[in-house]
Structures are given as structure tokens and as C-alpha cells.
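Please go through the protein record below and see whether the fold suits the sequence. Record follows.
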Amino acid sequence: MFCNFFVNIRNWRTNCQYPELLKKNADLVNENSVLTDKVAELEKMMVTIAHDLKGPISGSLNWLELIDSKYDDLPEEKRKNYLKAGLGQLKPAHGLLINLLEWSRFGRHALKPVKMSLREVGDINFDLLGPEAKKKGLELINLVPDDLIIEADQNIIHMALRNIISNSIKFTKTGSITLSATTSGGVTRVSVADTGIGISPENLKRIFSTEFHSTPGTNNETGTGFGLLFCKEMIEKSGGQLFIESSSLGTTVSFSV
């Protein structure tokens, strides 16, 4: 009698726990599936990034080896041209590395909102990227009002503008790149508009996916599209949103603060 009693108690406890165990097992299976997908996405991203780093670094190395092996035989003008070519190929690789480092750093650090002049932030980034725009004959126009003050993480705002402006330069052959901003209801919308080649509907759908891909710029500049995805993540972390409007007449990338 007592044996049956304890057997019944054991069976009752098992039956009560079984649904919970089934649910935990199902949750673990789902989590494992999500992790497997994320690992696959990360592997694809790393392959694309490695490819985009390998090209310019290998190209730059080739130019430097050519200069080194024939330095005394090369006219001064050719040496300068070869150095410029090598430097030009290293710049996109350097930009990609900076984005990767910032992505890692921002993922670990808390936001530090400060008040800043948006026009001054725009001027700083235009000065930084001015030489690249000048090479293509592009005009950089800052229409942000002098008195427009925003409160946000300074590093994220600089990073976002630098990436967006750099992307506009990459895909604009002639014309201009204009920075502007409007404020309504305490929210500021910052916009960078270019007169570039625009983004195709197919690529527009892929921009914020983890399907990284290289799209050459108007001067065959390389890139993965990682910069805009990084911007989106950081802007959203700050409580804002990022928007893209594009046509054959150009592209406007905006974000809210």
C-alpha cells in the first residue's frame, strides 16, 4: 500500500513537470536555431569583409612593391602616381576597419548624450571628407541653421554623418551633397541629399539585411554596405530612426535625433 502511494506521488510529480520540460526543450531548440542562423550570417559578413579588405590591401602592396623594386629607375612623377594609387586603395580598407572597431566599441559602452551644434558637426565632417569630394568635383553644402542645437551621443552623430556623407561621395559622379536639418515636436531630422546615381529597388531592399555585398562607386570605389547598416543600428540604439529615399536623380539618407 505504501509502495503504491509513493509510486503515485512520483508519477504525479512527473506528469506535472512534463509539460514544463517540453516547453523548456522547445525553447532551447528555438534558441539554438536562432544562434545557428546568426552564426551563418556572421560568417557571411566576415567573408565579405575579408574580401573587401583583401582587394585594396593587395593592390596597395603591389604598388609599393613595384616602387621598392624599381625605385631608382622610376621618374619622380611615376613614383608619385604609384604612391597615390596605393594610398587610394588603402583608404576604403582603413574606413572599413574604423567602422568595425567603432561597431565593437559602441556595442559595449553606454551612450553619453551632450549638447552640440549640428552645423559645426557637419562642417567637421565636410572638412574631413572634402579632399575625396574635391577629387570628383563635388560641392559640399551645409544648410543646417547656425543656432540648431541637438542633444545626442557625439561619437554616434559624427560616425553617422561620416558614413552617410562618404557613401554619398562614393555614388555621386557630378553635382553636390547637401546637409540639412528640420526640427518638429522636439525631434530633429538630419538629412544628407546627393545628386548621385541612386539605389536600385533591389539593392534598397538589401541595404539593411545581413546579405553584405560589394557595390562599386562611380569611380569603382569598393564597399560592403556595412557602413549604413552600422549607422542604422547605432541611430536606433540612440532612440532614433534612419530613412532612405532614392531615385535616378539621387539619394537622401535621413536620421532622427
